[in-house]
């Protein structure tokens, strides 16, 4: 945040927009570093989180439904409450026709808490 709000902000922005190419001559993926991190690395991250959750449900502490009820309720509430807050803050007008998108940014922290 310090760099993005300093006199180096333009350089910082242009660095993340640098194109990074992976592939062969006719078959390649040509995207910015920003795109690679947002789409590529985050896909790997959520894949690993999914594997960890699967392991916990199959062989870990969450295989017992009694232990799994709290994380399940928390996940459902984590989807419902942002949508309700969005609806409450946008009762009329053009924004009312939109969707409040719940975003799980603390998955790693939640898994640590479950552990």
Give a written overview of the molecule:
The chain is mainly alpha-helical and 115 residues long. The chain folds into two domains: 1-59, no CATH class; 64-115, no CATH class. Helices cover 59% and strands 9% of the residues. It has four helices and two strands. The protein has a two-stranded antiparallel ribbon. Strand 1 (19-23) and strand 2 form a beta hairpin. The protein is extended, with a radius of gyration of 20 Å. The relative contact order is 0.07. The model has no long low-confidence stretch (mean pLDDT 82).
Task: Annotate the secondary structure layout.
Layout lengths: L8 H8 L2 E5 L4 E5 H27 L5 H25 L17 H8 L1
Task: Describe this structure in a few short sentences.
The chain is mainly alpha-helical and 115 residues long. The chain is built from four helices and two strands.
Keywords:
2 domains; 115 residues; mainly alpha; 4 helices; single chain
Biggest sheet features: 2 strands, antiparallel
Shape: extended
Secondary-structure class: mainly alpha
User: What percent of residues adopt helix (DSSP H or I)?
Assistant: 55-70%
Distance between the termini: 31 Å
Domains, number: 2
- Helical segment count: 4
Write down the Rg.
20 Å
Q: Poorly predicted ranges (pLDDT <50, ≥5 residues)?
A: none
Averaging pLDDT over every residue, what do you get? 82
How many β strands by DSSP?
Answer: 2
Strand order of the largest sheet: 1-2
Give the topology string: H per helix, E per strand.
HEEHHH
Approximate strand percentage: 5-15%
